[in-house]
């Protein structure tokens, strides 16, 4: 998969470098957490010069946000196997909430990173938000109410911040999202 970088278009070689950097970032996060993550140590793990890493990523927050964006973009949208719009919305919310449930260090890092003010993070946050909004709108159907979409976005964002703060597991958050979405839409 050759996802376009958020900072520039990529050649095949550049795309490979970005892939190596994002994979290395996940490895460093697993071992050292977000506090121990630096663009420099990710570059070293990926076998590239720090200056090269900084041509693609402006900060560790940008790097982590890119990891999440790539995972979201690569995740399939739940199939519309049901005519029940609540079930379709729940499938979208559950899919996104559980995307990193098995990687708590990455999940917590994503929460921290996406709250950053780095312009590259802001750009990715917008792309992520638009992707999730489109998934929710599709799940709601052609007559989706913009207020319902916004309420679901707020529900989702609040739930992930809660999980990122360690109040509940991502699995429990996914269950709470299901209950809350049903209450909201019924």
TrEMBL record:
Gene3D superfamilies, per the entry: Tetracycline Repressor, domain 2
Superkingdom per UniProt: Bacteria
Protein's UniProt keywords contain Acetylation: no
Portion annotated as DNA-binding: 38-57
Domain HTH tetR-type: 15-75
PROSITE patterns linked: HTH_TETR_1 (PS01081), HTH_TETR_2 (PS50977)
SUPFAM superfamilies membership: Homeodomain-like (SSF46689)
Keywords for this protein: DNA-binding, Transcription, Transcription regulation
Protein name: Helix-turn-helix domain-containing protein
Species of origin: Rhodococcus indonesiensis
């Amino acid at each position: 998969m050759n996802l376009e970088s958020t900072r520039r278009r990529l050649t095949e070689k550049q795309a490979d470098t970005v892939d190596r950097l994002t994979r290395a970032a996940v490895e460093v996060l697993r071992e050292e957490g977000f506090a121990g993550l630096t663009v420099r140590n990710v570059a070293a793990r990926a076998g590239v010069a720090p200056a090269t890493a900084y041509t693609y990523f402006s900060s560790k927050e940008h790097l982590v946000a890119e990891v999440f964006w790539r995972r979201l973009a690569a995740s399939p949208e739940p199939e519309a196997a049901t005519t029940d719009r609540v079930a379709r919305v729940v499938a979208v919310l559950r899919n996104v909430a559980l995307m990193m449930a098995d990687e708590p260090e990455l999940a917590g890092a994503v929460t921290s990173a996406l709250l950053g003010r780095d312009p590259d993070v802001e750009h990715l946050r917008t792309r992520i938000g638009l992707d999730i909004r489109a998934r929710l709108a599709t799940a709601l159907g052609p007559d989706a109410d913009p207020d319902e979409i916004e309420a679901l976005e707020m529900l989702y964002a609040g739930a992930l911040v809660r999980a990122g703060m360690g109040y509940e597991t991502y699995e429990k958050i996914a269950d709470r999202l299901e209950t809350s979405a049903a209450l909201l839409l019924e």
